[in-house]
Design a protein that fits this description.
Blueprint (H helix, E strand, L loop, with lengths): L4 H14 L11 H15 L11 E3 L4 E4 L6 E7 L11 E9 L6 H12 L8 H15 L3 H10 L18 H6 L5
Parallel strand pairs: 1-4, 2-4
Antiparallel strand pairs: 3-4
Length: about 180
């Protein structure tokens, strides 16, 4: 169940407005989207996610498919048979981003790649929002303090902890955000 989806959409719109940006707009070609998404994915795929398994070979390229309508999404899955396996017998794990033409921009790509980096079933929960905030601070130059204030003002839950870890553990993400909170 995606309890805070509408709150997250409202919050991200407020963040974009704060910076005089529109969430939607065709700023990139499909190839540029793939390059940008893959760069972020490869930088963080082994840091934020906790669902990696040595039986799988994780992709290094995010494929982007242009779709009609007004909805963008992040897809993933495993190829586990025949030609899709590595020489070592690993199943190939893939990521595919579905973007509308107006979703071909940094803001939407960061939203979608945050889904790919968040725990598999998180949708728009606090783990997703924590990753999303960090990536917007890092790649868009947004002030993390402003995003935190807007999230708190709009009752959007977020955390920089890693799901399923015992208390007292400092997650890699919580260490990374420290520089943005000074």
């Amino acid at each position: 169940m995606d309890n805070q989806r509408s709150k997250v959409y409202k919050w991200e719109k407020l963040v974009a407005e704060y910076y005089n940006k529109n969430m939607w707009g065709a700023d990139f070609t499909t190839k540029e989207c793939e390059k940008y998404a893959s760069m972020i994915w490869n930088r963080y795929k082994n840091i934020f996610t906790d669902n990696f398994n040595p039986r799988y070979d994780y992709c290094s390229k995010i494929k982007v498919k242009l779709v009609g309508g007004s909805t963008c999404s992040m897809r993933n899955g495993y190829f586990s048979m025949g030609r899709y396996q590595t020489k070592a017998g690993q199943s190939r794990y893939y990521k595919k981003m579905h973007l509308t033409i107006m979703g071909c921009n940094k803001r939407i790509i960061i939203h979608e790649i945050s889904h790919g980096l968040a725990p598999r079933k998180s949708m728009h929960d606090k783990y997703f929002v924590g990753i999303y905030m960090y990536l917007m601070a890092k790649y868009l130059g947004y002030d993390l303090k402003v995003m935190v204030k807007l999230a708190n003002d709009n009752n959007v839950d977020f955390t920089w902890d890693k799901k399923g870890l015992f208390s007292g553990y400092v997650s890699p993400l919580s260490k990374m955000v420290r520089n943005y909170l000074k």
